[in-house]
């Protein structure tokens, strides 16, 4: 936890897995909440950004409060004495998952994640890989045992999204929930849409 006189802070890591838009949208939603964000975008992520979007690295950096070079192991976020409220890796590649699970701190993103775990702060990993083989699942279990929350970006359809943007926003908002940060515009499940559907379910299960 951080001292009360420090602003809310979240570290956002963006790796080279497909789905860099999740990290970008996270920066935007966190800014709306008034959260100070510390961004680490890896070299592979910069390549994926160019492949998947029309965004530039400068565009992404503008949405963060502070940006750190992925090779800068002397950055503030590399130390547990620097107060932050948690970390989100969106998207998280299997390579990064493996490094985090094994405390292989060869870059700032992994070091910051390792520090987050050792300080008992929330770490959410939006793992972007499918299908999964046994090795992937073992790494996921290992990271979870260390305290990480594994949250693959699986879209929810109960909110009846009408665009990819809505699905991305809802998925990221749920990841922020896992960090203890509720976004006011996130769609929430409020129960069955009609009593008839409830009655039908009961009769089927009777």
The number of distinct structural domains comes to: 1
Number of strands: 6
What percentage of amino acids are in beta strands? 5-15%
* Uncertain stretches: 195-204
CATH topology: Rossmann fold
Q: Can you name the CATH architecture?
A: 3-Layer(aba) Sandwich
CATH class: Alpha Beta
Number of helices in the DSSP assignment = 8
Strand order in the largest sheet: 3-2-1-4-5-6
Rounded to the nearest angstrom, the radius of gyration is 18 Å
Decide which structural class fits the backbone: alpha/beta
Fraction in helix? 40-55%
- Let me know the largest β-sheet: 6 strands, parallel
SSE arrangement, N to C: EHEHHEEHHEHEHH
Tell me the name of the CATH homologous superfamily. Answer: Flavin prenyltransferase-like
Report the end-to-end length measured between terminal Cα atoms. 48 Å
Categorize the overall geometry: globular
Mean pLDDT: 91
Protein name: Flavin prenyltransferase UbiX
Organism: Saccharopolyspora hirsuta
Family: Belongs to the UbiX/PAD1 family.
Keywords: Flavoprotein, FMN, Prenyltransferase, Transferase
């Amino acid at each position: 936890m951080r001292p009360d006189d420090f602003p809310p802070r979240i570290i956002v890591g963006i790796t080279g897995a497909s789905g860099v838009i999740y990290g970008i949208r996270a920066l935007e939603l966190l800014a709306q909440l008034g959260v100070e964000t510390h961004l680490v975008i890896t070299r592979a992520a910069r390549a994926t950004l160019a492949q998947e979007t029309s965004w530039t690295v400068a565009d992404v950096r503008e949405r963060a409060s502070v940006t750190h070079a992925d090779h800068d192991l002397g950055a503030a976020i590399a130390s547990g004495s620097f107060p932050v409220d948690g970390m989100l890796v969106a998207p998280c590649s299997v390579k990064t998952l493996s490094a985090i699970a094994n405390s292989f701190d060869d870059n700032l993103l992994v070091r910051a994640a390792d520090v987050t775990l050792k300080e008992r702060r929330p770490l959410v990993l939006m793992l972007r890989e499918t299908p999964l083989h046994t090795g992937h699942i073992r790494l996921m279990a290992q990271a979870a045992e260390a305290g990480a929350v594994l949250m693959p970006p699986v879209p929810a359809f109960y909110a009846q999204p009408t665009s990819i943007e809505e699905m991305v926003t809802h998925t990221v908002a749920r990841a922020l929930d896992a960090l203890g940060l509720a976004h006011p515009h996130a769609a929430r499940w409020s129960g069955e849409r009609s009593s008839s559907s409830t009655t039908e379910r009961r009769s089927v299960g009777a």
